[in-house]
Amino acid sequence: MPTVRHIIVCEGESEWAYLQRLQAFIDDQEVPPDTFEAPLHFISPKSAIARTGSFGKLKTIYNKYRNDNGKRCSIQIWSDFDLYHRNDKHCAEYYAQKTAGIPDFLFSFHNFEDFYALHFDGQTLEEWQRYGGPLGRNHFASPLHCPDYMPEVARIFPGYKKGGLPPDFVSKASLQNLKNNLNLQPDSNPHDLQGVRSFATFIIDQIEQAYPDLLI
């Protein structure tokens, strides 16, 4: 089985930290027969952190890595969707006009904390669903800004801090939860943007291709 390598241009420190945990989990798996290294690599250099979800900055970093590595690796862009949902900084307009050379982005719907929540089950996930749903703050249909939702994140997920995750956060159990919860991702897209992909769905698909028996 050939090794698949993805360089991930990402929005911030939280995404970068997650990618480190994800690759550490993959590296701990038994490699398939007749192979000598993990069949899947998510590569996330510190220089690939945009520190913003703005379209222009993500595009600039993507082009840098495409010029240097485009023939050796798949290069993907992982961003929050909230800026594009609200059209902050004209992100939706720029995305709608992106050229063929820029790939469809992989989004967290609507932000990293929503993606993080999908790794849980039971009461924890239910509380986040209530908060984001129509009987709560309706965040899933109309994404809030970070200062508005972070107090609730702190209540439901004690100990969570932006930019850092426990070493064991990505596990077989948490990825199984993520797979089971893919249908819970918000799907509101008021600007009818095309080519809008899910980072959660992407990584589950990639893991299942590389390790067909892992998440069953």
Blueprint (SSEs and pairs):
Layout: E1 4-10, H1 13-27, E2 40-43, H2 55-69, E3 74-80, H3 82-86, H4 91-96, E4 106-108, H5 112-117, H6 122-132, H7 146-156, H8 172-180, E5 197-198, H9 199-210
What does this structure look like?
By secondary structure, the chain is of the alpha/beta class. The protein has one domain (4-210). 42% of the residues lie in helices and 11% in strands. The protein contains nine helices and five strands, in the order E-H-E-H-E-H-H-E-H-H-H-H-E-H. It has helices at residues 13-27, 55-69, 82-86, 91-96, 112-117, 122-132, 146-156, 172-180, 199-210; strands spanning 4-10, 40-43, 74-80, 106-108, 197-198. It has a five-stranded parallel β-sheet with strand order 2-1-3-4-5, sandwiched between helices. The model has no long low-confidence stretch (mean pLDDT 95).
What is the structural class? alpha/beta
The overall average pLDDT, rounded, is 95
Major sheet summary line: 5 strands, parallel
Distance linking N and C termini: 20 Å
The portion of residues forming beta strands comes to: 5-15%
List the secondary-structure elements in sequence, H or E: EHEHEHHEHHHHEH
Q: Are there runs of 5+ residues with pLDDT below 50, and where?
A: none
Cα Rg: 17 Å
Estimate percent helicity.
40-55%
The number of domains is 1
Number of helices: 9
Shape: globular
The strand order across the widest sheet is 2-1-3-4-5
Number of strands: 5
